[in-house]
Amino acid sequence: MRPVVQYNAISPNAIPLPKGAAECSSRPFIRFESVTKRYPEANGGDLALRDASLSLPAGGLVAIVGKSGSGKSTLLNLLTAVDRPTTGVVEVAGVAVHLLDETQAALWRRASVGIVFQFFQLLPSLTVFENVLLPMILLGKLTGREREDRANRLLEQVGIAEQAHKLPTALSGGQQQRCAIARALANDPPLLVADEPTGNLDSQTAGAVLQVLRRQADAGKTVVVVTHELDIARTADRIITLSDGRVASDERAATASKTGAFSS
User: Fold this and answer.
1) Are 166 and 150 in contact (CB under 8 A)?
2) Is residue 16 a contact partner of residue 144, using CB atoms and an 8 Å limit?
3) Coil, helix or strand for 128?
4) In terms of Cα–Cα distance, which of 237, 188, 181, 240 is closest to 206?
5) Model confidence pLDDT, tens digit, residues 197-245
6) Domains located in the chain, CATH noted
7) pTM for the complete prediction?
């Protein structure tokens, strides 16, 4: 194996979070309270979210569905502190993520959130193994041997251990997405967020990727998936439907399938 590029690790404790931003078991794991997001006039002045409120417990698979322009991407960006609400509160595990500055948000994401993208976003010059290793190096919590052992375990867990020393371009789309999921899990985050994770895959491959996400939810992680795919929504424990920036419905999957939440 060729040597892994060395990076300077920054401890997530190097910069304190806002006062009161501590995990509290009595609170919902995810809480949106009266969240509105208006983009500035330079971007059209769109009102992307309108007084949205959500309360989700830890664990399980949550599907965010709705038509294009309904506010799904905005909700995901606010949940991961990539963006901030115009008004309202966004909390994850007691952390008031809407109050984090850019540096704090980056450190919080690194330790607490795994993100899976539709188009994988793997680093093409690093092997599959190195792509999974990199987030652990950046966080700096584990020793070199611990990082390598964890990377190998994660690749086994998602079923691509035999691809570890290949570059991403040598993998199929489904294998690349499995690698992306393993990378997202590298630092054992309590929150796993996926943005259309099967939208670039054929149905059989998408089903295999969905099984990986389902196993993570069953193992106790909170998995939030933005999707147009009915198979993902029907496998979810909870389905949140957005319409014109509002939370149109928030239902258990079995109830949603009967009330037509998939029609959006």
Assistant:
1) no
2) no
3) helix
4) 181
5) 988 888 888 888 899 999 999 999 999 999 887 777 778 999 999 999 9
6) 58-72+111-263 (3.40.50.300)
7) 0.84
30-38 and 87-92 strand pairing: antiparallel
Alpha-carbon distance of 187 to 180, in angstroms, equals 13
The C-alpha atoms of residue 90 and residue 97 are separated, in whole angstroms, by 6
* Whether the Cβ atoms of residue 211 and residue 218 lie closer than 8 Å to each other: no
Helix, strand, coil distribution of the chain in percent, nearest 5: 40, 25, 40
Q: Counting beta carbons within 10 angstroms of the beta carbon of residue 258, is it exposed (0 to 12), middle (13 to 18) or buried (19 or more)?
A: exposed
Decide if 161 contacts 152 (C-beta within 8 A). yes
Least Cα distance to 49 among 92, 100, 84 occurs for 84
Q: Tokens standing for 39? A: 């983009």
- Secondary structure (3-state) at 192: strand
Asked if residue 146 lies in contact with residue 109, where contact means CB atoms within 8 angstroms, the answer is no
Per the CB < 8 A criterion, the answer to whether 64 and 225 are in contact is: yes
